[in-house]
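Repro case for the chain-ordering regression, as requested:
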Amino acid sequence: MKNRNCIIRLSRYKTALYRLKALGFVKVFSDNLAEAIGVMPSQVRKDFSLFGISGKKRGGYHIDALIERLNEILGKDKVHTVIIVGCGHIGSALMKYRKFEDGGIKIAAGFDIDPAKHAQDADIPVFPIDRVKPFIKEHNVELAIIAVPDIAAQQVADMLISAGIKGILNFAPIRLRCPEGSIAHNINLELELENLIYFVNVLKKKRVNPDETENA
Amino acid sequence: MKNRNCIIRLSRYKTALYRLKALGFVKVFSDNLAEAIGVMPSQVRKDFSLFGISGKKRGGYHIDALIERLNEILGKDKVHTVIIVGCGHIGSALMKYRKFEDGGIKIAAGFDIDPAKHAQDADIPVFPIDRVKPFIKEHNVELAIIAVPDIAAQQVADMLISAGIKGILNFAPIRLRCPEGSIAHNINLELELENLIYFVNVLKKKRVNPDETENA
DNA sequence: AGTATTTTGTGAAAAATTTCACATTTCATT
DNA sequence: AATGAAATGTGAAATTTTTCACAAAATACT
Ligand SMILES: NC(=O)c1ccc[n+]([C@@H]2O[C@H](COP(=O)([O-])OP(=O)(O)OC[C@H]3O[C@@H](n4cnc5c(N)ncnc54)[C@H](O)[C@@H]3O)[C@@H](O)[C@H]2O)c1
Ligand SMILES: NC(=O)c1ccc[n+]([C@@H]2O[C@H](COP(=O)([O-])OP(=O)(O)OC[C@H]3O[C@@H](n4cnc5c(N)ncnc54)[C@H](O)[C@@H]3O)[C@@H](O)[C@H]2O)c1
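-- result from build under test --
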């Protein structure tokens, strides 16, 4: 029911709603949202009913109220503080990304083992890794992004969790294990590319032989 | 049946197999793979049977043969050339990532609209954006990574597809539309963080009130 | 060689997710 | 105020995906 895909759809509805709002719309119907994110209108209504979101028959949903409700459900009604561990290529790209802040995600600091990466006076400071535990405790940080090499990732994750981190977004190409009470989501870009390659091949086979292949 | 999740699992099995192989294993059973990627053994066997992969009863699967077969299914039995459009923070992080090449994914060049990003003599060169069409045609490139600002992304995608690109991995936070015969996968990092935030909140509610909440 | 044990491969069952379909409500128009 | 059209909310149906469970095969052991 309230599975990962459903939550992802809620985020997508929200993105679509912000765009519709910017376009001047005040209310929206399930088919507008369905069209925007590429699902059936009944899916939109089912998702909403799962969270007790209701609109008005014939009147649809009020955009502002809907955005507010979705933000509340998604926990985006307050600012979330995140730290980044591993300020190499990916880590520093993320640190420089300003749009997270617009979305209520504040990157408080970076941490790295390499002194060359340290920048304690920068806009978003980068501290030595041994400062991470006290930092997490002092600032009550619950979220971390891991962008260290794969061999170090599990060890870093364990350390962060022991310091109080509850949620990790991991870019190292391994599946992080974590104990009850904490959670890790893994982003594996090579896997994403591999996946894309597979579906491009399916597509090509379909062109050559439209019958023998099935849909992607 | 052969849905996206199934293909993702195949990639994961492959990763696990490489690790098991490096550890000295020669054969593997469905429960080893299941344990490694966190699914049921019957899921592993079902996935394999879907692609006509078979092992030996009581003997399991031969790791080398299995890796080879998976690579073949996933289209990883040859090197794939990729270009990157938009060599800003994310784009250049990806260009500097050496492990793609180990996995048979070769980043041939980058393209950017900003002359300050151009580097025609670099290891992986960065060319002006107007060179991208001839490059795609000349080198028969089918895959592209888009890492331009969101407002430019759809336009860039259309251009790439018209030049012959079949598969796009998109980092801009919009859902790219593309015509029949081409495919785009979207990576939305803010959505991933939002999703993580939701599940961390579910976790916290569960701690406070173990009954009223359901599993993540 | 024969027996016991382990593991696959796969239909069938179960579970999860999506889609349908329609009664009900609301809004617009006359 | 009455009528008609449009959109929601939701059980039920359909579809998809996962898990079960067990017969058949391969290996190990005696
Ligand atoms: N760069 C990419 O495009 C890309 C793509 C896919 C996956 N990844 C993955 O993301 C991770 C980071 O990649 P990258 O390219 O940024 O690598 P990188 O080498 O540029 O950065 C890694 C950083 O982590 C730091 N580090 C190492 N061990 C540490 C520790 N124990 N504690 C704190 N910091 C530590 C290093 O000093 C370095 O600054 C890797 O796991 C990589 O496989 C990167
Ligand atoms: N940096 C991140 O951590 C991050 C995180 C999430 C999402 N993203 C998304 O990834 C994309 C890139 O982000 P970034 O931080 O690397 O931005 P950036 O501004 O650093 O880089 C964008 C690059 O694209 C180039 N560009 C702009 N228009 C172009 C065009 N028409 N053709 C070719 N090149 C063009 C720019 O010159 C620039 O070099 C954005 O859509 C952003 O929303 C980035």
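Ordering looks correct now. The longest strand of chain A covers residues 105-112.
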